[in-house]
Amino acid sequence: MVEPAVLSVDGLTTEFRIAGKWHAAVRDIGFELARNETLALVGESGCGKSITALSIMGLIPKAAGRVAKGRILFEGRNLPELADDEMRKIRGDRIAMIFQEPMTSLNPVLTIGFQVAEVLRYHRDLGPGEARAQALDILDQVKIPSARDRLDDYPHQFSGGMRQRVMIAMALACQPRVLLADEPTTALDVTIQAQVLVLLAELKQRYGMSMIFISHNLGVVATIADRVAVMYAGEIVEIAPVGELFDRPTHPYTEALLRSIPRVDRTSDALVAIPGQVPPISRMPQGCRYAPRCGLKQPICERAGPPLEPVPGSGATHRARCWVRAGGTGAAA
Q1: Are residues 79 and 196 in the same domain?
Q2: What is the pLDDT of residues 275-306, one digit of tens each?
């Protein structure tokens, strides 16, 4: 018997209003997250990774944004349909998020101990003393040195790596079923990055969590992910098990990302930059969104957007959005 997905996203389209018109920042996003699985969302800045996570968390600002279409199914409920008070009960409890920059996510005038305990007091209805004791326990679990002595310190008294550990502690305080980690290692040096990745892997196994790991660093993704979804201009352009994606990158954008990674066994001359930029959401190309930057484009690529289809010879677990490589009709069109 196949175990049901912990989280299922189907046809998610999130829009923002610009100059009086709605434009899709992410379009037709779909994936399932299994129990204990880590799914990585990768791509350049501006491709829609964080917007996807914020849509799941119900944190799209309503003044200028909206989830226009699609379903986000969690524990039998469609999250976009929930009222704000119902979503607040899930957010931080059953689904938690580690934000990209801890210094702007932590309150500078509240102590670390208070901020971690606050999550427990809100979602577990604990008294101040019990919440503080559990906050100390979770800070020990994320390996904050001398945690008891640092409970009453403020965020500015912690290093960047320690602040990120505090963010992880806040996210894991209620032992969520799903953790969204939005580039949690971006601002850290490589040694601290490695420590944080090991910590996340340990805590994921301890709590039996599922995780969506957002990054632009494919080297980091290779060490932590079970599956990878490559995003470009608001769409998933390729999704596959991590080993297969690195062994057989199919979409031209995935190939370009891998060629742009520095490697110790290659000279700097071997790096190939991707020409152009991710298009703004108000000026998306008519057909394939990657076509203006793609060296393999065919006439059909500029006329119609390709579907996300199985890659020939790979089975249903590896899919790509490409007329030439996946559909097989582009070259003949």
Answers
A1: yes
A2: 889 999 999 999 999 999 999 999 999 999 99
The sign one gets for the Cα dihedral 326, 215, 62, 117 is: positive
Give me the pLDDT at residue 264, please.
65
pTM for this entry: 0.91
Residues with Cβ < 8 Å from 322, sequence gap 6 or more?
237, 250, 251, 252, 288, 306, 330
- Can you give the CATH number for the domain in which 16 is found? 3.40.50.300
pLDDT in tens, 69-110: 999 999 989 999 999 999 999 999 999 999 877 778 899 999
Cα separation, 151 vs 44, in Å, equals 37
Q: Are 187 and 136 in contact (CB under 8 A)?
A: no
SS3 category, 7: strand
190 and 78 belong to one structural domain:
yes
How far apart are alpha carbons 278 and 304 in whole angstroms? 18
Look at the chain and report how many structural domains it folds into: 2
* Max CA separation in the chain (angstroms): 70
Evaluate whether 168 touches 199 at the Cβ level (below 8 Å).
Answer: yes
Q: Which of 146, 145, 150, 196 is nearest to 172 (CA)?
A: 196
Query: Does position 315 have pLDDT exceeding 90, yes or no?
Result: no
Which residue in 183, 216, 291 sits closest to 47, CA to CA?
216
Q: Residue length, the chain?
A: 333
Cα 134 to Cα 27, 39, 127: the distances in Å are 41, 29, 11
* pLDDT tens-digit map of 111-128: 999 999 999 999 999 999
Q: Is residue 292 part of a domain?
A: no
Closest CA to 14 of 307, 234, 229: 234
Q: What is the pLDDT, as a whole number, of residue 331?
A: 45
Instruction: Mark whether 163 and 184 lie in a shared domain.
Output: no
Which residues are within 8 A (CB) of 130 and not within 5 positions of it... i.e. 6 or more apart?
A: 120
Q: Is 201 exposed, middle or buried (0-12, 13-18, 19+ CB in 10 A)?
A: middle
User: 191 lies in which domain range?
Assistant: 7-94+174-264
